[in-house]
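Continuing the batch. This is chain 6 of the set; chains 1 through 5 are on the previous pages. Same settings as before, nothing changed between runs. Recording input and output for traceability.
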Amino acid sequence: MREKQRKLQLPEKLRWNHNEWYRRWLLRQLPSQVGSALDVGCGLGDLARSIRADEVTAIDASARMIERARATSEKVRWIHGDVLTHDLGRYNVVTAEASLHHLPLREGLTRLAGLTKPGGLLIVVGLYLTATRADHAMELVTLPANALVGIAKAINGTGGKPHDTEMPMVMTAPTLPEIRAAAAEIVPGARIRRHLFWRYSLVWRAPEVH
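Output for chain 6:
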């Protein structure tokens, strides 16, 4: 892992939540009917509470985050624990919103794939390290777009701090080539897309068992 650099940081009042921006996209990837779902690195539980499933489980390594999330909903099974070692089942849907980069890439992706039931869906929206020429070319669009969205949100009163102050700061992340290489080995066939605002998505359907 290498240090993740941010360029032209916006003033505090113009900063905004990139995870929230992509949450609607993530939720649209879900099947209309979901039996069981697991949200990995749930934080305060915004995504977990938005998932429509018969059973929703959410796990985070921060006891304080889970304590606060648990106070917001009794419909979700909140777990304080390390997703790499905690005894978990297998789920029809596994989501990871801005959390995979907090784990060793290959170990983390292998674990998420293992938590996905045969025929189930793994959906990751993650951060990547700007490293390639294509990444830097994308920033020619990303940086002004980031500022414009921040200004618009400040005008309509929805801007401000982008994350809870207790969320861990992101100082490292894998590069997109590293993510693609790991996915090709661990979750072959996964759809990986580069998005604006330093995000990528990975969607993988676990093979059915015959």
